[in-house]
Structure formats: C-alpha cells, structure tokens
What does this fold into?
Amino acid sequence: MKIGAVIVGAGKGIRLGNVDKAAIRLNSRSLLSISSDIFLTVKAISSIVAVVGHDRINWAKRELRGRNVVVTEGGKRRRDSVLNGIKMLDSDIDYVIIHDAARPFIDRKLVGRILTQLKSGEKAVICARKVSDTIKSVKSGYVDKTLDRDRLIAVHTPQAFERRLLIKAYTKFTKEDFTDDAQAIERLGTNVKIVDSYDNNFKITYPGDLLCARVLAKKRSI
It folds into this structure.
C-alpha cells in the first residue's frame, strides 16, 4: 500500500476578506508550510503535492524550497484542485489523503488513526467531531425544524480514499460542486468510515478563527 497526500490551498479566502489563506503566517510560518511539514514527518506517506492558486505557484515553490513537495495549480472548484493534485502524485500511489492547508493544527496521531483504518481495509475514511450545539434547519428566515444532534457530526480534514475510487467519483459526478471530498464517495454508495477528530483541528475561515489560531500558535510554538 502506497500513500500520498494532497494539501489544498487554492481557495480565495472570501469569508476572510479575500485573503490567500495558504500564505497566512503563524509565528512566521505560512499555513501551507505548516500543513505540509506535518505530512513530511509521516513515513508511510511517500508523495506529497501542494495545490495553490495559479498566481501563487512561484511563491509556493519558494516557501517549500528544500522539501520533497510538488507544487501544482488549483482549479475553479475544490474538486478541480483535488483532481489536479491527485494527478501530480507518484503514479504508484494507491491511497490519497486530502487536507486543507487552512487547518494548521493537524497532528501525526490523527493522521495515524486514519492510516490505521486504511490498512484495515477501509476505502474511505474521514475525521469528525460530534456536534454539541443544537442545530436547526432554516427556511425563509424562520426555523424549519430542529435536527437530532446525536446523529450529526462536524466533518474535518484529513480525509483519505482509495485513489481510483475518488477519481471514479469525481469523474462520474462532474457537474456537482461538493463541499468535501467524501460527498463524492457517498454518491457512489461506498461506506465512509469516521474517526474522531479534535476541537483544535478547526479551519481558518473567518477573522475570529484567525485570531484564535494566532493565540493557539503562540501557546504551542507552532
């Protein structure tokens, strides 16, 4: 079993004020380099690709200089960026781990739990946290109904899949704009295994997230 990783950092960061999130620095290190470095420490991962915006290719290559990470250009949608990354992995890669560069507090233990599931025979594995808030669906500005939070999870990355399976899913459902890669796998009818994530594995999406990240980075000397 050969495993590769794709670090996705091609988003425009609209909700953060049109900021290139991959280039945000925590304690002088970019989110792209922080996320890439974690996967470089995992011996089971033999090929890593970083996906960035077309105007950030040269920056990313400089940022990751000296690291065994291939840099490639993202696409218009997340799915396009992921597929671009997968295509740049070594040809003999069997499984691929997809991770958001904007989640800089990933650790090797979580990656290890995901890899353990792959080695046990799972073809699709995601990490998630149980929802603690009461969740309601909304219609026309009013509460539609209250959902059963015992059946709800908040999904994070990394997410890992058999390479051929993910390519098959994205090739089959070309017009759909999935918000995470597991949705494409679900559409195929394939079971998706869940492992526990942790609260600090949050995605930097809004200004408040960035503030929290900077505080946490100082405490952890990231």
